[in-house]
Amino acid sequence: MQAFTYHNEGELDKAIEEYGKVIKLDPENAWAYGNRGITWTEKGEFDKAIEDCNKAVELDPKYANSYGSLGYAWTRKGEFDKAIENCSKAIELDPKDASSYGIRGYAWAEKGESDKAIEDCNKAIELDPKEASFYGVRGYAWAQKGELDKAIGDYSKAIELDPNDASFYGGRGHAWADKGDFDKSIL
């Protein structure tokens, strides 16, 4: 589908336009609403994302991805309790949904619930060990707990998997600085 390709290439406006065409042809297409919701989230248009994802849930309340997409939008909006609620529903419907575990883990970490974040990230990594963001979130949670060596290890693994994400370098640098190793913190 062209919309999906546009999204993956960063052409978010074109992706939204294409998803809109699909929805116009098939107004009951939960998948198109959910994916357009993700695209709106990537653009920072969280209210539009939530509206589309809610429509996807309304059309197909058993489609786990729609709840995961809602969780992602709520997380980006800073509404972590709502993110946790929606990701939990996605996991209930699809216990092998690694992404929803990862998103919920991030929401737990942002709420300061490090142990819950680590638990969710462990499950996400078990399901999808090649997704860098899961290691990054777990590193963040380890750092919150003061487990700096574990944080550095997870951030390093995240960097190995995705060397283009600056947030992993930043997290690792903060962990090294918190350990007092300022030379390594700037690498």
Characterize the structure shown.
The relative contact order is 0.07. The model has no long low-confidence stretch (mean pLDDT 95). Helix 7 (98-110) packs antiparallel against helix 8 (114-127). The protein is elongated, with a radius of gyration of 18 Å. It has 12 helices and no strands. By secondary structure, it is mainly alpha-helical.
Compact summary:
With 187 residues, the chain is mainly α.
Characteristic terms for this protein:
187 residues, 79% helix, elongated
Quantity of strands, as a count: 0
Shape: elongated
Mean pLDDT: 95
Compressed to H and E, one letter per element, the order equals HHHHHHHHHHHH
Which structural class fits the helix and strand makeup? mainly alpha
State the low-pLDDT regions, or none: none
C-alpha-based Rg, rounded:
18 Å
* Biggest sheet features: none
Query: Kindly, what is the distance between the CA atoms of the first and last residues, rounded to a whole number of angstroms?
Result: 41 Å
Beta strand %: under 5%
Measured as a percent range, the helix fraction is over 70%
Count of helical regions: 12
Secondary structure elements and their pairing?
Elements: H1 2-8, H2 12-25, H3 30-43, H4 46-59, H5 64-77, H6 80-93, H7 98-110, H8 114-127, H9 132-144, H10 148-161, H11 166-178, H12 182-185
